[in-house]
Amino acid sequence: MYDWKDIIEELNKGKTFMLYPHVNVDGDGAGSCLALARMLSEMGKECRIYLGDELPAYLSFLDCPFFVMDPLGFSAEVAIAVDCGEDGRLPGRLDTFMATPVRLCIDHHIKTKPFDVKHIMNDPHASACGMMILDLFRAMGRTPSKEEAEALYVAIITDTGCFKYSNTTAETHAAIAELYGCGIDHSRLCNMLYENKPFPKIKLEAEIIKRARFFAGGKACLSYATQEMLDMCGAVPGHSEGCVDILRSIEGVEIAIFIKQQQDGNYRASMRAKDYADVAAVALPLGGGGHVRAAGCSFSCGLDEVIDILVPAVEAELARHTDI
Asked: FRET label pair with 240: which of 100, 147, 200, 204, CA 20 to 30 Å apart?
C-alpha cells in the first residue's frame, strides 16, 4: 500500500534504534512501537521505546523491557517517531531525538508543521498508526508473531474506539482478520483493555460525570479532572483515560471535551466529535492537532481560562453546521 523503500533501507542498515511515541502515550502509540521494536529485535537489532511518561494503567499489561523512561546511556543510530508527526509532541526527549544521526517518522496525524527527519511516512487517512506498521511488516515480507500481532491489535482497536469511530473502514476489519490469523487472543486483550477497571478509576469517572457541563444547546459537553480530584479518589493520571468517550456517548452530544491537569499543573484538553464536527479545526488554532473526530491541545493557564477559551471555539465549530 505504501512505498516503504527508503525506510526499509534504513531499518536494514541500522544496528541500534530508539522509538519515540508521542507524549501522553495511547494504545496506538504503545502498540505500534512495541510491534516495530519486536520486529527489529528479531532482525538482530538493538531497540528501545523511549516514553515521555509512564504507560497508562490500562496499557500496563504491555509493559516489557523495550519501554524505558530513561535511555541510560543507550545510543541509537536511528530514531523513529511513531504515531508522532511533530517535534512538539516530544517534550523532554526532543534533544535526544534530534541528536540521532538518522531520524525517521511513521505517523497518521494531520501535519501542520515541518518535522526535521530524513524520511517520513504519513497518512492522515489511516485509521491507526498500527495499520501502517502492519503494512510495513507486509512490505518487509514478515508475518507478525502472535506477540507482534497482539500489539498491533491493541493499536488498532484503541484508535478506532472498538471500531465505533468513523475512521473504521473495510480495510480496518480486513487487517484485524489478518491479525486473527496470527493467533491473537482477542478476548484476553479486550478484557485487559476494557473489563479491568480499578475501583479508583470508577470513582474518578463518577466525579468527572458529576461535573459535566453542557452548552451549545446540549450539543457539547465538557468536564475535567484535577490533581485534587485524583487524590480524593485515590486515582492516578492514567485512570482518566477514556473519560472523553464517556462524555461523547451522552445522547445529543456532538463534541465532548475532557480537560486533564498535568503533573506540572498545566492542562491538556482532549476533544472528540461523534458525527459531523471537526475538532481538529478547534485544536489546530490553539497549537494542538490530531484528527477530524479526535484532537487535543495543551494550555499553560488555569482551568477557568482553559474553559473560557474552549467553549466559544467549540460553539463556533458547531455553528458551522447549523444545517445539520
From this structure: 147
Burial environment of residue 163 by CB neighbours within 10 A (0 to 12, 13 to 18, 19 or more): middle
Q: What pLDDT is recorded for position 324?
A: 61
Question: Average pLDDT of 113-124?
Answer: 94
Side chain identity at residue 41, one-letter code: S
Amino acid at 36: L
The helix/strand/coil state of 158 is helix
Whether residues 100 and 148 fall in one domain? yes
User: What is the DSSP code (8-state) at residue 22?
Assistant: P
Mean pLDDT of the chain: 95
Stretch 38-50: mean pLDDT: 98
Q: pLDDT, tens digit, for every residue of 266-299?
A: 999 999 999 999 999 999 999 998 889 999 999 9
Work out the number of other CB atoms within 10 angstroms of the CB of residue 12.
Answer: 10
Asked if 35 and 151 touch (Cβ cutoff 8 Å), the reply is yes
Q: How many domains does the chain have?
A: 2
Domain that holds residue 125: 5-194
102 burial (CB, 10 Å; 0-12 / 13-18 / 19+) is: middle
The reported pTM is 0.89
